[in-house]
Sequence to fold (96 residues):
Amino acid sequence: MTAYVIGNITVKDPDKWAEYRSLVPDTLVPWGAELVLRGTQAKVLSGQYRHTDTVVIRFPNADSVVDWHDSPAYQALVPLRTQAADVDLVTFEADQ
Fold:
């Protein structure tokens, strides 16, 4: 079943964030993941949204999400991510 990672992001350091963003795609390749969306907030239609950016990544299954997140390649980027932005990462399995 397809799984998605959604990242809700508030950028703290644009230069470090740009560096982090440039490095993440290579970490996705071994897991067959696809970057679906990288975007900045356009408009809140309902409720409240405190973040400035969002990312959506599609994975073949939930196991590949965990394997990617826990991989040495991605974990090496976590300190840079922490310096660059406040990031809430969640994963969902698709119903369809």
User: Anything to note?
Assistant: The chain has one domain: 3-42+50-93.
